[in-house]
Amino acid sequence: MTCIACLTLIVLDQLAARLIPSFPIDNWEPVPFLGYQFHPPKDLKGTYGYEKQGPLLLFDYETKVSSVWERVNRLFPDARLISEKKADELRVVVLGGSVSLGTGASSATTRWTHLLASKLEKELKKKVTVIRLAQSGFVTTQERLTWYFAGDNIDADVVLTLNGFNDSIFSALGVRPGDPYTQVLEYSSHRSTSFNVIQWMSKHSALFRVFALHGISYILEEHLEKITKDERLQRNAVQSTAAIYWENMEVIAKNCELRKIPFFVFLLPSRVTSKFGSEEAAHEIEKAVPIFYNEIRERRPAHVNFTDLTPIFDRASDQLLFKDLVHPNDEGQKVLSDAVAEVLLGNDGQAVTLQSKTQISTPVARN
User: Fold this and answer.
1) The overall pTM is greater than 0.70
2) Is 255 helix (H, G, I), strand (E, B) or coil?
3) Could you tell me which of 104, 61, 49 has the C-alpha nearest to residue 330?
4) Residue 338 confidence (pLDDT) above 80
5) Cα separation of 191 and 55, whole Å?
């Protein structure tokens, strides 16, 4: 009878959870002090060298550690491409978050980075290798750290980044601008007993998890409403985010300048930052992102190559080119690739990527 009762409770728990509307960001979990983090990958050991021991993640020392660069090799998917550079090879490094990875594409060959490499090879008549030093959820502080550790180990010809969205939306979610909090490594000692209980209950009860996440959603919405209704708080939020954003970009730009490597910053397009998408934004967090983008645009320094890509999805039909809020589908990946290639190659057909000149690009729009 006890087994039957337990099984019945489990079934009812799962059914009840499915009847309640899902939380808008239900693939995240709350973390004290730093807002949100993505769930850790299943293969923790393979990705970071850590293994789970009870409630802790501990480094296993199965291999020796001799350089911080080794962590970069574990963290980024294209590390295997970083080998001895060929004489006729053009090496493009892409920093950023999930869009820089090509999330939303149905295959490796439909990612915008693959399409970009193909287009550059055709135009420049040489081998082009695109290396993605990006991770889902990365903010510009993490891009800065990535390039700091990677710059000496990659013989790059061009560095570019697609960003702005993560900095903006995570600031709207109540994270201190600049905090590199999405490293997906849990530190259990920082968590209270009550949080661990909530986490355990959420893990073992789908219904409890739904209620817990809806409760968190309510707190987030109240926090955002407080910021957006108070002009002083909203001004502090957007100005702080833009200040950190451009500090990070200028540090990378200065480093690239010293290495004589062209650096390009692309303001990431999304459904809610396009002309029609911003009108259809339903969630308060979505509505906040364009406000942050406006401040980023206004603060752009003249000495950094900057291109605002948000207009490339301004047609009403372009809303169908996104799989979700920010990730383009296959057709959208091509649009994104073409826009980036246009800037890198220049309107005159000459390869800006082979020069060290700077420029500020005007927004690119499609007819």
Assistant:
1) yes
2) helix
3) 104
4) yes
5) 11
